[in-house]
């Protein structure tokens, strides 16, 4: 008596256009800087991404999304899931609605490992669902270089052909790291581009693309999508428009710059994992693979 029935969760997949639109309306109400509409209009919402939402009067009031991930752990392929867009409208908080969508999202993950990147306000929230925090490390290398050669052209991810090519490179190419990385996450990288959060995508060759830009005298190399290994050192002058003295990596550079050193903890990552057998060795999950 007097108890409201548990609200039922709706799964939103890539073909549920009207509900996807409601989801796109929800996101900026909870995450001020993030949007999904452009990404969705680009056709990047595919079968790998499912949103578990509670609706009220046609509006999404709480949500937890699940992205299928093809993780690589110490070289091993590990099927897993990554949660994202977990939240509740401010007006509806404190009623257990996020617990309902979190449980639905976790059910959809079955027994597979799950990871997510949180924020400082919710560090006590995810442990309630069996997650534990895991350290992420920054990597850097001192390296002096000056501009040279033909500047690598900048590619525009608003172009569907560029997105399709990135998807192929990400699926079939060389993973940027095998310590703790993934394959086939181009639809996550394009989300950053659709929100104008990504560094420029530079084309070193048909088969070697990098997200990189210079700040001060540091080259920030966020990701490398390539078919084959190449001589990164020799290509760096094509990525810079002024002299640099160091490189910061958006991933563990065990393959691309083995001499790189640990440059402290990535205190902004807030990685949480559930049933994910991660090593205690220092690693950084590629920044453009965070949902
Ligand atoms: C964090 C958030 C999702 C919680 O939503 P909510 O609907 O109020 O949460 P619920 O009412 O379902 O609470 C579930 C449980 O978590 C607890 N909880 C809620 N918010 C919490 C927080 N910020 N930290 C720790 N615990 C929290 C509740 O007390 C409740 O515990 P109980 O079941 O033991 O009583 C919501 O505040 C939000 O949308 N925040 C902004 C977006 C955000 O930062 N999302 C996380 C992105 S990684």
Q: What can you see in these coordinates?
A:
The structure is a single chain. 20% of the residues lie in helices and 34% in strands. Strands 1, 2, 3, 4, 5, 6, 9 and 15 form an 8-stranded mixed beta sheet that branches. Strands 8-10-11-12-13-7-14 form a 7-stranded mixed beta sheet. The mean pLDDT is 96. A hairpin with a 2-residue loop joins strand 11 (208-215) and strand 12. It contains 6 helices and 15 strands. The chain is globular, with a radius of gyration of 20 Å. The chain has helices at residues 17-30, 37-41, 97-108, 160-172, 186-194, 232-235; strands at 10-12, 49-56, 59-73, 76-88, 114-117, 132-134, 137-145, 154-155, 180-183, 201-205, 208-215, 218-226, 244-249, 261-265, 271-274. With 291 residues, the protein is α+β, with helices and mostly antiparallel strands. The chain has 2 domains: 10-134, Aminopeptidase (3-Layer(aba) Sandwich), CATH 3.40.630.30; 137-267, Aminopeptidase (3-Layer(aba) Sandwich). The structure holds coenzyme A. Coenzyme A is lined by residues 30, 62, 86-88, 93-99, 118-119, 121-122, 124-125, 128. Residues 30, 62, 86-88, 93-99, 118-119, 121-122, 124-125, 128 line the site of coenzyme A.
SS element count, helices: 6
Rounded radius of gyration (Å):
20 Å
Assign the CATH topology of the largest domain.
Answer: Aminopeptidase
**Model regions low in confidence, pLDDT < 50 over at least 5 residues:** none
Structurally, the number of domains stands at 2
Mind telling me the CATH class of the largest domain? Answer: Alpha Beta
H/E series, N to C? Answer: EHHEEEHEEEEHEHEEEHEEE
Distinct ligand kinds: coenzyme A
Structural class category:
alpha+beta
- Could you describe the largest sheet, including whether it forms a barrel? 8 strands, mixed
The total of beta strands comes to: 15
Percent of sequence in beta strands:
25-35%
Spatial separation of the terminal alpha carbons: 41 Å
